[in-house]
Amino acid sequence: MAGLNTLEPQETRSAAAARQAFGASVGSNPVTLRAIVIGALISMAIGAIVPYTNMIINGTLLAHNFSTPAALFLFFVFTGGINVLLGLLRPGFALARGELAVVYIMAMLATSIPTIGFTENLLPIIAGLYYYATPENNWAELIHPHVPEFIAPNDPLAVKAFFEGLPEGMAVPWDAWFYPLLYWCSFIVSLFWVSICGMVILRRQWVEHEKLIYPLVQVPLEMIQDDEKKSLIKPFFKNPVMWIGFLLPFLMHNLTALHNYYEFIPTIETASSMNLFRGTTYLRFDLNVALIGFAYLLNRDVALGFWLFFLLSTLERGIFSVLGIQSTENLSRFANSVGPYIAHQTMGAMIVLVLSGLWMARRHLREVMRKAFRGDPTVDDSDEIMSYRTAVWGLLVGLVALVVGLWKSGFPLWVVLVFLFGMLVIFLSITRAVAEGGISVIRTPLTPADFVISGLGTPALGASGLIGVAFTYVWAANIRIFFLPCFANALKLAEEIRGNRRRLLAAVLVGVLLAIAASVWSVLTLSYNYGGINLHSFWFISVPRNAFNYIAPKFATPVPADMAGWGFTALGAGLMSIFTFLRYRFVWWPVHPLGFATGTFYIMNWVWFSIFLAWLFKTVILKYGGSSGYTRTRPFFLGLIMGQIFVAGMWLVIDYFTGMNGNILGYF
Fold first, then answer.
1. Any alpha helices (H) in 65-118, and if so which ranges?
2. Does position 531 have pLDDT exceeding 70, yes or no?
């Protein structure tokens, strides 16, 4: 017994020493050096590798939507494999729960950067302005004279080589990109900073007061939970119900992947469609098991609102088409896909969604302001990643930086304020849809550029303003993923960090900056080595042409403000006000209005049926199994999510070694 008593402290001291040597100490803040280093390495890997998978392998898109599957795939491998191996080498080497949360936060935020979120949009657009100028589109006469010199590379050889590849022996012309990258990286970091400060201000209202459930972070949260014994293998990875759910998409998508290699192997068809209203519109029926998994985590009234309001908007589009109620406006392809009238109607609903949300948060916002400007000791901000004073002043400084950046790009100063209002409404609405509604595949029908052009008319913008509008296509048009909703999810995960969370801000900034640098390096290197037009037609042909074809005709033919558009904006605002009143006035009202504001976009055609099935499954399970039935089946649906993401990531690795191209396994 004496020997055992003396051995136990020695083992404890040894484990503590090992843990400290690897970058942490027992009982320390979870935002450790080793967690930041691992998160930084994963962030760089995502920034560098994701463009390669998109443009060389042309496989499944793992950084295209808010589910951030690239981060989930790597985190699954790290938590269920690498971290376990580290613990087997020596117990102190395995990362603890809070440290794992830090790693995932950094990876998730990095996933929002390399594709639509910033880099793969940015570089082809600013280079394509000159490459795709032809006598037919007249860009050289209409657009080029008004372009600020610092905003796009204008070296003809550097631009041509970006799209067609470098001549043999020529190095990547980094100097041609220096000033454009300096401007754009400064601008996007300012936007990210505004997002960080804004979400710090709203976090307590959303997380603690309104208790939003943040469905998209439930899988990583489950992955890092410990059992009573704090064993190396987390309970998530030992749950047989989860593995049953995991196996279903794993088998389905393995068949699809093998079919792409060998056509004689059968595959499972998971989508169909039907034409409606004399073929003027159609309805898709997509069975996406990962989306079913995410939607199962929603409150039923939220899920009901999404699929019901989408069907009603489809009915509205069909009636408009049959009756010939059509707008003559030519807006962006996103608004035109649903029809300008419905796009304006949705904008009105989003305005009410945001303003009503701020009104409900008024007490919390007053507390934030008292703490920021008066230092009120009764308001506790110690659990935030920055003080309220820093957040409020940081938000103001960041907004000033955005105003200056947009003004320098060509916007008249007063129009910048209108644009920023539209941007904040759209960004906050989608962030709310992600945080409360768990929607991973979403897009706005009316972009901030549409809002300004349609609402004010092009004479208010002038030629330089139209240039500024075109460049917002980089970060505020095709927003299927962007930083703000991902950071909202990150702050929910930050609850796993016990103690002082202030160090998390440094970790976030490190991961973001490394992901930006790695993705810029990756896209430029690949483009110059292979030639962008040989890599991916969407990124290098469609995206830059869409950005400037949208505004070029408006130079020759000025567009007045559209009064009908304002009318449908008012209609959408009025209907949303009614739905919001019903939701908060009558407990029995079963439909959440979030779906009316954010669930009527055309991309919901690919999503609604999976949400409907999840809503149906959950309704039946709760009716006949109660809350215990939901608890028992929840791991199965988490497995559906992780199985589909893992098999997609696994085949990207396989395709890299085999040289396979175009092996796409669904979307997330």
1. 69-77, 83-89, 97-111
2. yes
**Residue the block writes with tokens 């939607």:** 295
Q: Do residues 93 and 19 lie in contact, with contact meaning Cβ atoms separated by under 8 Å?
A: yes
Secondary structure of residue 138 in the 3-state scheme? coil
Asked whether the predicted pLDDT for residue 9 surpasses 70, the reply is no
Identify the bridge partners of residue 273 per DSSP, sorted by sequence position: 284
15 pLDDT band, cuts 50/70/90, is very low
Torsion sign over Cα 342, 344, 350, 352: negative
Cα separation of 35 and 101, whole Å? Answer: 9
CA distances (Å), origin 204, targets 354, 355, 383, 437, 541: 16, 18, 10, 18, 43
Instruction: Return the number of other C-beta atoms located less than 10 Å from residue 286's C-beta.
Output: 18
Return d(Cα 425, Cα 381) in angstroms, integer.
Answer: 26
Strand partners, 467: none
CA 608, CA 610: separation in Å to the nearest integer?
6
Contact of 421 with 354, CB cutoff 8 Å: no
| Orientation angle between helical segments 33-52 and 119-131, nearest 10 degrees | 40
How crowded is residue 346: how many other Cβ atoms within 10 Å of its Cβ?
Answer: 28
- Report how far apart, in Å, the C-alpha atoms of 129 and of each of 160, 242, 320, 415, 465 are: 11, 49, 36, 23, 16
Q: Is the dihedral of CA 146, 152, 155, 158 positive or negative?
A: negative
Beta bridge partners of 50: none
Cα 412 off chain centre by: 29
Beta bridge partners, 274, equal 283
Q: How far apart are CA 302 and CA 614, in angstroms?
A: 12
CB 339 within 8 A of CB 552: no
**344 and 569 in contact (C-beta within 8 Å)?**
yes
Q: Where are the alpha helices (DSSP H) in 361-502?
A: 362-374, 388-409, 413-437, 448-456, 462-471, 483-493
Note whether 125 and 471 are within 8 A (CB).
yes
The alpha carbon dihedral of 267, 611, 599, 203 has a sign of negative
pLDDT of residue 632: 96
Give the closest residue to 432 by CA, choosing from 586, 276, 595. Answer: 595
CA 511 to chain centre: 16
Orientation angle between helical segments 483-493 and 413-437, nearest 10 degrees: 40
pLDDT, tens digit, 9 for 90 and up, residues 645-655: 999 999 999 99
Residue 642 near residue 218, CB atoms below 8 Å? no
Check: CB of residue 31 under 8 Å from CB of residue 497: yes
Measured CA angle at 462 (ends 456, 464), to 5 deg: 125
Q: Write out 518-579 in H/E/C secondary structure.
A: HHHHHHHHHHHHHCHHHCCHHHHHHHHHHHHHCCHHHHHCCCCCCHHHHHHHHHHHHHHHHH
Phi, psi of 58 (to 5 degrees): 55, 45
The residue type of 106 is M
Residue 28's pLDDT band (boundaries 50, 70, 90)?
Answer: low
Using alpha carbons, list the distances in angstroms from residue 376 to 103, 201, 305, 384, 502: 34, 15, 40, 16, 20
* Among 612, 647, 665, CA closest to 295: 612
User: Mean pLDDT in the chain?
Assistant: 92
Give residue 20's identity as a one-letter amino acid code: Q
| DSSP codes of every residue in 591-645 | --THHHHHS-SGGGGGTHHHHHHHHHHHHHHHHHHHHHHHHHHHHHHHHHHHHHH
pLDDT of residue 334: 87
Sign of CA dihedral 101, 102, 103, 108: positive
